[in-house]
Amino acid sequence: MEIRIGIINTGRELSFETHTAADEIRGLVTSALEQSTPIVSFTDVKGNSFIVPTANIGYVELGTEESRRIGFVG
């Protein structure tokens, strides 16, 4: 699943693929924002970690969990 996070006052967004379910990501972000947790962290499919300050999150876009199709459509 692809995750895109918009950061306030930054022209680029953070975009990465993860194996974590959309509901789990949604819960993680929602709980961090509700509890005023200073940071939220994510791990991508390659094992890289991303630490994002919750005060700077503009938006979080969760992609679909279906796999990408490869090849030609006939």
Question: Mind explaining what this structure looks like?
Answer:
- The protein has about 70 residues and is of the alpha+beta class.
- It has one domain.
- About 20% of the residues lie in helices and about 35% in strands.
- The chain has one helix and five strands, in the order ββαβββ.
- The chain has one helix spanning about 20-35; strands at about 1-5, 15, 40-45, 50-55, 55-60.
- Strands 2-1-5 form a three-stranded antiparallel beta sheet, covered by helices on one side. A two-stranded antiparallel ribbon has the order 3-4.
- Keywords: ATP-binding, Nucleotide-binding.
Strand order across the largest sheet:
2-1-5
Compute the number of helices. Answer: 1
- Structural class, judged by helices and strands? alpha+beta
What are the low-pLDDT stretches, counting only 5+ consecutive residues below 50? Answer: none
Helix content: 10-25%
Shape: globular
The H/E string reads: EEHEEE
**What can be said about the biggest beta sheet?**
3 strands, antiparallel
Tally the beta strands.
5
Strand content: 35-45%
Distance between the termini: 26 Å
Mean pLDDT: 89
Total count of domains: 1
Give me the Rg, rounded: 14 Å
Pfam family, one: DUF3107
GO molecular function: ATP binding
Organism: Microbacterium keratanolyticum
Protein name: ATP-binding protein
